[in-house]
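Blackboard transcription, Thursday session:
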Amino acid sequence: MLTLTCPCCGMTVEETELAPGGEAHLKRFGPGSSDAEFEGYLFARKNPRGVHFERWRHAYGCGKWFLAARCTATLEVFGTYPAQTTEPPASIVAAIKARRPDWEGLK
Amino acid sequence: MSTRLATGGRLIDRTKPLGFRFNGKRLKGFAGDTLASALLGADQMLVGRSFKYHRPRGIIASGVEEPNALVGLGTGARFEPDQRTTTTELFDGAETSSQNHWPSLETDIGVLNNWAYRFLPAGFYYKTFMFPRAAWKHVFEPIVRQSAGLGKVPTERDADRYEHAYAFCDLLVVGGGVAGLSAALEAGRAGKRVIVWEQTAHWGGRSPVDGGQIDGMAPEDWVAGVLEQLAAMPNGSLRARCMAAGLYDHGYVLGYESVGDATPGDGRPRHRLWRVRAGQIVTATGAIERPLAFAGNDVPGVMLASAVRDYVVNWAVSPGDRTVIVTNNDDAYRTALVLLDAGLVVPAVLDARETPTGELIEAVRARGVRVLAGRGVAKVKGGKRVQGVQVCAQAGEGAVLEEIGCDCVAMSGGWSPVVHLWSHCGGKLLWDEANACFRPDPSRPPTGADGAAMVRAVGAANGALRLPEALADAGGPPAVAAAEGPMAPVWVMPQGAPPALRFKAFLDYQNDVKVSDVQLAAREGYESVEHTKRYTTLGMATDQGKLSNINGLAILSDALGQAIPVTGTTTFRPPYTPISFGAIAGEARGEIFQPLRRTPMHEWHEANGAHWEPVGLWRRPYSYPRAGEGLRDAVNREISNTRNSLGMLDASTLGKIVVKGPDAGKFLDMLYTNMMSTLPVGKCRYGLMCNENGFLMDDGVVVRLSEDSWLCHTTSGGADRIHGWMEDWLQCEWWDWKVYTANLTEQFAQVAIVGPNARKLLEKLGGMDVSKEALPFMTWAEGELGGFRARIFRISFSGELSYEIAVPASEGMAFWKACLAAGEEFGAMPYGTEALHVMRAEKGFIMIGDESDGTVIPQDLGLGWAISKKKEDYLGKRAQQRSFMDNPDRWQLVGLETLDGSVLPDGVYAVAEGHNPNGQRNVQGRVTSTYFSPTLGKGIAMGLVHRGPDRMGEVLDFPADAGKVFRARIVDPVFYDKDGEKQNV
Amino acid sequence: MSDAVSALEGRTSQGFATVQEAGLQGMVSLRCDLASKALAKALKELGLSLPAQRRVVAASGRSALWMSPDELLILVPYAEAAATVAALEKALVKEHALVVDVSDARAMFRVIGEKAEQVLTKLCPVDFDALAADEVRRTRAAQVAAALWRSDKDTFSVVCFRSVAGYVMGALEHSARPGSELVAPA
Amino acid sequence: MGMRRYSAFAVAREALRFHQGWERAWASPAPKKRYDVVIVGAGGHGLATAYYLGKNFGITNVAIIEKGWLGGGNTGRNTTIIRSNYLQDPSAAIYEKARALYEDLSQDLNYNVMFSPRGLLMLGQTEHEVRGYKRTVYANNLQGVETEWIGPERVKELVPIINIDGPRYPVLGALYQARGGTARHDAVAWGYARACSAMGMDIIQQCEVTGIRTAGGQVQGVDTTKGVIDCGKLAIVVAGHSSVLAEMAGFRLPIESLALQALVSEPIKPCMDVVVMANTVHGYMSQSDKGEMVIGGGTDGFNNYTQRGSWHHVEETVRALIETFPMISRLKMLRQWGGIVDMTGDRSPILSATPVGNIFVNCGWGTGGFKSIPGSGWAMAELVAKGSPGPLAAEFGLDRFREGRFIDESVAAGGAP
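(Written on the board underneath:)
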């Protein structure tokens, strides 16, 4: 039963107030993209055992989507950040590195 | 026999006698008793039968670890099976009954005596019952099931209520013994918000029974003082009768509070389930004494040494006149002293150690008790009650040295810290050689959201088993207790017990797992501790192995020739002890089992005989059958009335989402397959939404409200989902687009006025021009209609002249009634969802969830006209270009008409020639919607058929039930008013 | 207008705290750039000011509640709602903004009494010790979304969607049943 | 190595000597340098794959390597439901193959897996659900899967403890598969393991794969905690850990690993002889031979490798089941646990070749893994042995995601196990 801090309203809330939204930082491919690109966008999932970036919506609160960096093996949360970005901000990357020195970065 | 002593009993109130029944027999106890102490006090040692062999079993423990003494408690709507007597507080009038026997507890024909159960060792059922094949299901399994099981089956709806509660704290202390209270006091003084839970009704844990001194005081006095201090702290909270059931990620702990168990029917909740979020958790959960494995260690009267002590001191109950103590450690000698103090007889202490010495041992010797060193039990004599023990050399193979008569055996195999909560969420254990137990490994704790340790174990739960160590470990005051010498890691008696003895030495009492079973598992290669557990069922009974796990592990390790920590432990799973399903469900039952969404007109529907249909969490009237009228007839009447004069539908559940902003048009063009940006203000347009996989996900009419705002109608079940979908794209993909959305579904009550007389009704209400010229099909207007603030949408889902009118929800009921009144002279009559569905099918309109099922794309449904060819992109467009979708060879929407006018069954398939490589009959289509059309007087259907639109007029075979084959012709899906003459008037 | 009724028409229940459906309440949802000067001015006209994150500003029968980084909820008497929408729309006409009347989409409850907090503690995963006096918390009440805040020392206001008003009333009544107080044993 | 037959006679003979003469059920060998086929994962699916490689194709130079203990993953954590009442043809084919193999599995393996075709009901509680299940019945009849639609009275007859006229979701009928049921989950793994071992295959437990060796786009072997093991072919059959293994081999799968939870009550005397699934309220329940009510519900929505799910799902499931079976309210939850299920993009499994030559994957069974074990092993053995799928696996290739050729069961199953 996770707790996450919504960066949009500042509340630390429990999982039942949130809605999970799958892998973060996917790049959308639309018409004009190759079959492989489109398949990758819709289906190829990192699903790592370890550091993972994911989407959450503060569904029972401010209604905003945000992103979280979390370890899927321990459920440790490295940080949360607004959804309006295509890659994790430097502060989040630093927080992960501090806890997981072997982490090779978002691939 | 077991009896109530004339004096003593720190927990009972002799001025308050309580009556209860056991198997119909009237018995007496006192306030403060547990069911177990009251039963023992009334000389009821035999309380149940074991699971597999139906052996007679007695009370063995005094707490949550009790494996045997489970009873059925209560009657009727308050009956509960498998109730643990050692943790149930006695109350006046309690009805209890023993379990798992027939015909009676004393005489159970299911019992298997010593020779027969030889044929049923661990896992015997994996090796037998295989022939003939059908015999397992029809012969063997029913026998196994009937003889297994345990408690009786409750038959009634639970009469009690339950509730949940949340709490937040800096520190949750689990366990109100002296270690827990010490930790709580320290944190409380430091200003932390502290919650302390104690699973029993009493504070102080074992210390008041086991003695010693804390901070110069008797333990009981010290405990009372600390409780007072904690109670006075505004940042402290104490809760007794509350057990920590499970520890979960991010500091989430479940507490199971017994509120009204002992006061049935007083209106309070029976149980309360606490969900605590704690910054830190201290587990001060104490330790549990282990039995020893010797032949006959399950005969009623063989008990844990600490339990014998508890019964004497806490409840003034003597479990037996003559008690032989069997031990591998010093602590059990405390039991001898307690018994002697109570004037009872201790014929001997059998100590497995060769040279036991120490303060407690000397004290016992000084009282004239024989202490037999290096001795063990060869065998317990007796059937339904201990009659004596045969003494042997612990080092030998069981040759009997002497026999000692006794009616109680108090055994102690040492103590195991309660590490369950520590382990629930990933905390690891280490092996403590000195105490022969697993204890929490502080270097591998369970970790929380921040990755740091979230649990600390203190006191006996941390392996600090003796009072002074326990308090020191918990940061408490100095304490003194009798010094103890080292224990010996003895598990089985005697050490060289031959098969015949190991066959009667029980490890898991409830599941009848014996030493020989574990050894058999090891021999057969079930070497992992999890394999052994599952193969033998060791530790899988309702006590979850609290007494048996470590002993079994030790025996497995010995059989495998490896050290215990190499073997490791099984996983500890929540809950710590079983918790009621009622508590888990909490308040969610009956009326508030789930939210029920009501429209503003709900009460009217209910009062007017609506037959309800659940639609998501809403309930919508399916139809309004009149007295004596069948559902089918009611639907037909509603359809005919609507088609011929005037129908009214509560359409309030339709989703209504406003989308506004400079980029709203662009956004809706991405969301819908059609072009919405070009929709003129004042107009309506039917739109389709697909997901990124190209599949149709929702549909509805979009309304252009103003230059920069649109109103999107969604399906009834879809409003929240579609609103979330919109916000997802706006916040996470196109965050620089200037668009705001608002879900206004519940702001408006919406009524559809449908049928040839619809306009007359609106004209009668008055206030707005609803003429064909002023308000043509697919337009809308805003104004005051009959005095109500209204938006009128001239749209139709039935093919009739139709208006959908939205008014503020608070005025919905008044508006509905006003319409009914105004429409009376025109034949106005409400209709439900089924009539709605039939009428839309007559018109060939698709229904999300019927024609679409998550695998259908708009192109399949002949909705190509609603897909803009001009747009470069919309959600789902790229997916629809994939080879399997961009393909004319798909199943596509058609109408279906049976040759004989009958109604095709729901969901039936059209067969094609031959079979596929897996031997399945080939199919070429299926029915998606099928109804009797009262308008046309025959069955009509829609379906998806392979290349259907190219095959008009072909007849397909639909095999249905009992060999009947329906034959239906492929036709145009629009069955009624193809040219739309009725809706465009 | 006189025909307007709230979801439960003011139903009241007396437990160890009083649970009361509060009747018709004007509510206006406002989405815009909260830093906009036009908004500040419009709020001032209503006698209000911009609430800080998760805060409530109340004055003379009106309140402004911070709902999300781009959303406020303005509470006014029910009869004033339409006029408030019009006024705000006018004030924000040059802004990218969405102003909608949601008075009829919601139900409002008051939970009153010394032990009111205990009622909500049974239904909402909220740390009430950490809830500021003027803080609005959007959360979950049992199985539905809700917003709650302290309207005075012993009174909580709770807002939920109108369609589930009966459910919320049922859950509040259940939680307020006499005898089920969350008092710690002495 | 041969295998001494199990029988009632053998048990009786052993009883006379206190069961001192039983042999190991399976050997515990050290790994050899090379195998024709290495299967990663000694769960039900991996062991069944090995068994049918030997039995159907005569391939016995096989190692099954397992990082923990055999049968210790989802095989030992599920709610043991067996059914084949699937809607789509490819699903119905493979699940029915599995179910049919279960019928004779005890005799085939000489190990009683206690397959109990006690009947399985999926309750229809909304009009929409009723339509979906009727459709399934018609599809099943053409697929050779015996199911029927039964009315509420018959439901009550089969399940006396059910509340069929609940005010909220009355039972409108049920999709009934009379020969669906349950089996003893551990026994399935143990029976296959014993049979594989008897064929000379090596089951290597406590051996974790740490890398996959490839050359020229072809698999060469695996690095393990017990050294390098070379192989001709590699089958990855590791359910929730599929993505981790795929990453080692350099490709990605359409898989998310999610926690799924189950729980049991304390044992009571027999009161429910069938399996009941109530998908509208997201709960399902059966009674084990020990008497425990075995209960499962929905999955968490976020990626998780901890085998611990979120508590609120248990609450949701239990309250739904109390509504359906009011008498369980006063039973107690004895034990709850979680497993990691592998959910694909269309919620149907993958049996497929991969971008790396001679690596094959069998995964994505999600919540449906246990019931499919024999059929999955049968089809996977054919895929591995021949290098291309037979008819049972043909539709379950990875290529379907690129083509948009989904096998979507959600319409009928609603995420049911």
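Lecturer's comment: The CA atoms of residues 5 and 12 of chain A lie 4 Å apart.
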